[in-house]
Design brief:
This protein is α/β, with parallel strands linked by helices. It has 7 helices and 9 strands, in the order βββαβαββββαβαααα.
């Protein structure tokens, strides 16, 4: 059973709402000309994680996006940013009309913070927390994220943008986030360390994922997208002496189907030994 909190009631709701095997997800972007920023990308990321989680639970999913009629350059910038963050592109893109919201039926409607309510379309409403500006950190707000280099301020040249994804996944999707350079650097180091570990473990014989880990992570993901708890579990698994290296590899590779962090990137390549 896959459940998520409906913002309108504060209660967990099972999705899909009827007995079937297709989860329909609609991500709503702003109608105004304020542009697309990191909070809006976070909404797309939540939609992506929800779709990945559904697939892990044996559900097919369909994601579509409603947005303003973006100029070509901004639309391209959005596409590049989604690709950099490992967000699977929506299968369908609809455009808001100036006279009102696009009526898009879906099981789950994901809204970026501050997006106008569109309750008439039905389904579960999920509001995604705001990404704030850290004083003195130079982290931009939405108004400064219209340029083609949408992620540049968060992931400067030479920084893996998936470190931004990891940083965002470390917080419950409803929780506001203040991005700092310190937090981003910590995410970058952890991501690099995990990739090195996975590359080391891949050289050992494969072993099954521990049953307790599989049960726990499935339950956490099914209960309102508990991705931060899954990340904590991976930290624990990496340190467990009772889990063989091959089982650690299979655990990280399996859960990366939801996390989307490319944890097996270094497998088969030269890498320095993990410390």
């Amino acid at each position: 059973m896959l459940r998520i909190v409906d913002t309108r009631t504060g209660h967990l709701v099972e999705v899909p709402s009827v007995s079937r095997h297709l989860l329909s997800i609609c991500v709503h972007q702003p109608v105004s000309d304020a542009g697309i920023g990191m909070t809006d990308l976070r909404a797309l990321l939540v939609g992506d994680v929800l779709a990945r989680t559904a697939q892990l639970h044996g559900l097919q999913s369909r994601t579509f996006l409603t947005t303003a009629d973006l100029p070509h350059e901004q639309a391209q910038a959005l596409d590049r940013a989604m690709s950099a963050l490992g967000i699977h592109p929506p299968a369908t893109v609809g455009v808001h009309h100036l006279t009102g919201a696009l009526r898009a039926p879906a099981d789950v409607h994901v809204h970026a913070y501050g997006t106008a309510a569109q309750d008439a379309v039905g389904g579960v409403r999920v509001d995604v927390g705001q990404i704030g500006t850290a004083s003195g950190e130079g982290v931009p707000d939405r108004a400064h994220l219209l340029a083609p280099g949408l992620l540049d301020a968060f992931a400067p040249e030479g920084t893996d943008p998936l470190a931004v994804r990891m940083l965002l996944l470390g917080h419950a999707y409803r929780t506001p986030i203040t991005v700092t350079s310190t937090a981003l650097e910590e995410a970058r180091r952890t991501l690099g360390h995990w990739r090195q570990l996975v590359a080391d473990w891949a050289q050992e014989p494969s072993r099954p994922i521990p049953a307790d880990v599989l049960r726990h992570t499935h339950a956490e993901l099914a209960d309102d997208l508990g991705v931060p708890a899954v990340l904590d579990t991976l930290v624990t698994v990496a340190k467990r002496a009772d889990v063989p290296a091959g089982a650690k590899f299979e655990t990280f590779a399996f859960l990366d189907r939801v996390l989307g962090l490319d944890l097996a990137r270094e497998v088969g390549h030269q890498h320095r030994a993990a410390t």
